[in-house]
Amino acid sequence: MEEQESHQEESLKKVSGLYKDWFLDYASYVILDRAIPSIFDGFKPVQRRIMHSMRELEDGRYNKVANIVGNTMKYHPHGDASITDAMVQIGQKELLIDAQGNWGNIYTGDSAAAARYIEARLTPFALEVVFNPKTTEWSKSYDGRNNEPIDLPVKFPLLLASGVEGIGVGLSTKIMPHNFNELINASVAHLKGKKFELFPDFLTGGMLDASSYNDGERGGRIRARARIIQKDKNTLCINELPFGKNTSDLIDSIIKANEKGKIKIKKIEDNTSDKVEINIMLNNDVSPDKTIDALYAFTDCEIPISPNACVIVGNKPEFLTVSEILRRNTDHTVSLLKKELEIELHELQENWHFSSLERIFIENRIYHDIEEVESWEDVISTIDKGLKPHTKHLLRAVTEEDILRLTEIRIKRISRFDLDKFKENIIALEGKIEQVKHHLQNLITYAIDYYLNIQKKYGKGKERKTELRIFDTIDASKVAVANEKFYANFEEGFIGTSLRKDQYLFDCSDIDDIITFQKDGTMKVVKVEPKTFIGKNIVHVAIWKKNDRRTVYNSIYREGKEGPYYMKRFSVTGVTRNTDYKLASDQKGSEMLYFSANPNGEAESVTVLLKQNARIRKNKIEIDFSEITIKGRDSKGNLVTKYPVKKVDLKEEGHSTLAPRKIWFDDTVRRLNADARGTLLGSFKGDDKILTINSQAEAKLVTFDLMNRFEDDYLVLEKWKPEQPLTAIYFEGEKQIYFIKKFLLENTTNVQSFLPSEHPKSFLENIIVANKATAEIIFAKEKDKQREPETINIDEFIGIKGIKAIGNQLTKNKVKTININLPEPVEVEINEGFDVVESTEGHISFIDVDVKEEDFPEEGMIGDLFEFPEE
Questions:
Q1: Which one, 258, 571, 630, 806, has least CB within 10 Å?
Q2: Hey, what CATH topology would domain 347-456 get?
Q3: Shortest CA distance to 47 belongs to which of 165, 197, 135?
């Protein structure tokens, strides 16, 4: 029995050992021979075998892909399907394989035709940089019948140009493709000892935020976006894709987001062929700018990517940066170029050596000495003896192999021997030898020239396709479509989207937060749900935005059942969801008598009526909330009265007490901000707007909402001054002359086109948003006569007319250029304690900033506003 148990234990140990070895063998095979590329040539094994097989079959003509796949199976121990898929992926990258036929579409995701229908051959670039049998190390194929390369001698950072993705056992790799020309520039910079920086570039174009790329190492992160343009007010167009996505993926994600109510679209069309074109139609009540942000927030129009540069180095995986991969690739290229030069030098020297021997053999008629020699040994010794007096200048000793080659020279060649031609050949060989030696002595310079030559021959048409940008973070709650109707039962204390029989309040999105206030002074913030119990006697329900300092709440409350009455103003910037906050008092019986929510900090006036009391003479108290400081939500507030209050009546609607908001424009992300990034546009309040004018002579007024987006094509982007006229100088295509017009814009958010001519050759030359400007007209030369430049004062030249007016003719003569001179901005000395709000012709507005911070928690809150005549 004991022997049997011992035998079982021994068997178990052996089996477990086998499993351990098998797993390690399998993991090693998957990592080294399938999933992870080599750092030196950038290929996975299957890709390397495909390239080697194509080189074997290369004859300058196209080969059927099925034939190439069949030939590759001599080297690859897997099926034809995996070889075909890998070959199609190489072909779609448009670098190594010249593809013919339907190889699929990287834009639409359509698959390639069957291997028997499509053809391929190597590109000139691949033939030049990928192969060289003289510098290739070989190993036996899996069945031992053929030789295959261990690594192809690639003299280019191919791994970074193509990119790669693979999953092994316990690790993975994801290396982004990079731009062809930028890689060459980086390699040259490395060889020169200079710094360089690399960022991904994708065939599908799009935009990329690589600010957290981390040089492609683990832990980095990039964001890729589709390029979305606005065709008109109801149509958006996606014309470039984010990396790794096709039009089918993108459309599916947009449809799902629309079905979930995250975005609101009317219709979507895919017109993609050789170029991407996905048209998204919107309803009239939908904002295109907000929809663009929503597409980035809720669909695959923006995707995060985590690069992970794992490569095989010396039969083991290593995690490197992209820069380190390029440096090693470049150094490897230098070593390969050195090998090639050394091989070439050896071949040239051998050629020179034998040519010199041949000349000695023929010129000294040594072949006559062997005519009467009988044995082969005597022939060899006779030739060797005849050569010795003439071989002192040779590079090496004469071998028996050299003599054997001399005996193989034909009589015909000896009879036609031309000493001059032999001398020319020797001189040419010596010149080549010197050149190769020079390259070896100046190897780095030679390598730089090699890279620049590659760039010159193959770099055209390989410019960067993906635009590098810094993306602003889109707040999903701000761009989500209001896809839910929200209701409330104020008496019973229920709120939600399913209470259709109760009072409708507003539309909201399903990711919004809802703020509620009750009569007892309790505040709570909750998520949007079908039905939520808040508590009886709700007085206010609204959508709440985190860090919202401009919404101010005004209230009057009683402390306890019979306590004194207080008034306070406060904002709610941050809370914990589903938590009750007592804004009045913790004492039982506390009650809010008056409450108002003011989205822009408005401060109204109210009248507090007291109950009849013999102790008081005046039973009416006037309260102006603008005189109360805005404090935190936990503050007690100011005392109103100790006596019982009968009611509180609204006396007068108020105006905002918040300072005009300073707005900047960040050209990097083409967004507005209040964080002092970019160019200061000015201080904004109320209905102030921003003026934009594009090159198509279209003016548009937009609000100073920080979510507004601005495209690249704008000539003017500044704060709009309603009284400031615009001056346009335009070329009238039909009459072939320049016109000038001055006009005011209407206060509307519709696009206002001010170019009266629709002729295709008409164009806007200049747009001026300033007074006292002058225009200098430089005339073109006519009939060998040069007219003197003419300067006009624009304000005197033309008056203000309608936006549709043609304007005045600027000049009848042919114009070369028109230079606009604007007046210098007025410099005003400002006393300490004041800040300029805005400067317009005639007046400068100031705000008193010499106030205590604790009095005005809203940054830049207005104190006293003064206006002085501008001097």
A1: 806
A2: Topoisomerase; domain 3 (1.10.268)
A3: 165
